[in-house]
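Working notes for the structural subgroup meeting. M.R. asked for a predicted model of this chain before we commit to crystallization trials. I am recording the input and output together here so anyone reviewing the notebook later can reproduce the run.

Input as submitted:
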Amino acid sequence: MKQLLTGDEAIARGAYEAGVRHAAAYPGTPSTEILENIAKYDEIYSEWAPNEKVAMESAIGASMAGARSMASMKHVGVNVAADPLMTFAYMGVNGGAVIVTADEPGMFSSQNEQDNRNYAKMGKFPMLEPADSQDCLDMVKAAYEMSEKYNVIFMVRMVTRVCHSKSLVEVGERADVPVKEWHPDPMKYVALPAHSRVLRVQIEDRTKKLEEASENSPFNFAAYTDKTLDGEKVGVIASGVSYYYAQEVFGENASYLKLGFTNPMPKNLITEFCSKMDKVYIVEEDDPYIEEYCQRLGFTVHGKDTFPPYGEMTPDVLRKSLTGSTLPEVEYDHSLVNQRPPSLCAGCPHRGLFYRLGKRKDIMISGDIGCYTLAAGAPYNAMNSTVCMGASISVGHGAQQVFNRAGIKRKVVTVLGDSTFFHTGVESLINTVYNNSNTINIILDNRITGMTGHQQNPGTGFTVKMEPAHMINIEELVKAIGIKHVKVIDPNDLKAVDEALDAFMDLEEPSVIITRWPCVLKKFSQADLDEFENLFATRDIVDADKCIGCKKCQQTGCPALNYNAETKKITINRADCVGCDVCMQVCPTGAIIKEGEVK
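Returned structure, recorded in token form:
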């Protein structure tokens, strides 16, 4: 039976058909939908972990116990998971184990563009690269078979276009793979140096066997043609979705070597292919991973000397690199489009906070990863740094120490979301307390993992399968860490925001402000409705007679507010407004009132 699936959906289906019993992940675009779809299968235990390291370790434990397991994450998440991953690659598996990395050429929703194929090379574990959704399903199933055969974790390297594009997939039935018996084996699973030195030697023998598997893998194949390009036999070596991009550009006049099993590389297959060509192009996204391997074999190939060293290798990019021409661009009349930068949603509980933070000139704001990173831009201009998940508190601590010791009177305010706090912010706050810093640390508790599409986390009260779970109380947690000064506020209340900041500005020890209000787009639980009274009950409207068109309300960044150039008045889009009242508190003339209120 055929189904139209995205790559992420096909990965999930592959896990199901492969008999996977345990899956863990931390949400991150473009990998999020993998676990969301795995969770739909009752046969697979699924969990959102607080971070990628914990997800990897959960999958490792499941493998040790004898079950086939999977950990999935975006590319920067592998940085977090790398510690256990690198050691597990030495140990080997009991039940088959797969880690899925979703790389982001082009950085659509990521802070860097790293090529995680280098992890497989560095960690000496095998890797597969799907080109489409059928590859995703087939490679996942094959990965589990080979994981157990060769006693090693497999990496499946995805990229954004494969994750999110759809293609037809032939689906099958679930394999009934029993849980393997567990036997204590300290030499294998206790990573003492003496044990690891023995395992390190064994890796070389395993690599030789995997090299043979790569040579004979159906995921690596050559397609030759007798045709030429400009009188030369041209060959193209490509991996992943770049294979289809290359076919679209080079057409039927080139020969192709599609590589899907890319660590170890198929040395003999590559040698044979390159030896038959007059000119060889390497089409791959991000690093010259394949290119450098071919060069080590002694072949002159054209890769990053022809194509860009960064970004997606789309047909248009390849065409421009080869000929200087591109496909005709569609012309748009931009005058018909309401140009507006990315913004926080109408009713977003973060807007009031950042509106007030942006007004303060005596602070440095250390930010983090989430929807709220948009506060770095206009109209807030209320974020001075963003590095990685959980870094806001640590970076802020480091900066505050410099200011304090240099005698500079500047307070550092750190800001991160609830899910990010659980991810790696907890450890950063421990560091702040332990080293006696005096930063103000703001945790944005909107009761959901917002940026990646509303996934559950330890503070929401539900698991990935929407089963009730213990809800971690952030206030109690930070007090347990050692924070003595804690305030919980409604961020829509601008006076409360100012009072909380003012109360902590002169402290010589760390403090925490928890802004607690649910994400406006969240599907509210009964707990939300019980805790938050009058949850967006009444919309706001503008009394046109009182509006002076000063636009101060628009400084709050709410997309529901519109300025009419003809009337020189503000209007509120009723379909967008949720009645958070932030604009009402900013209006100097009292022109913004509640809907239904007598003028």
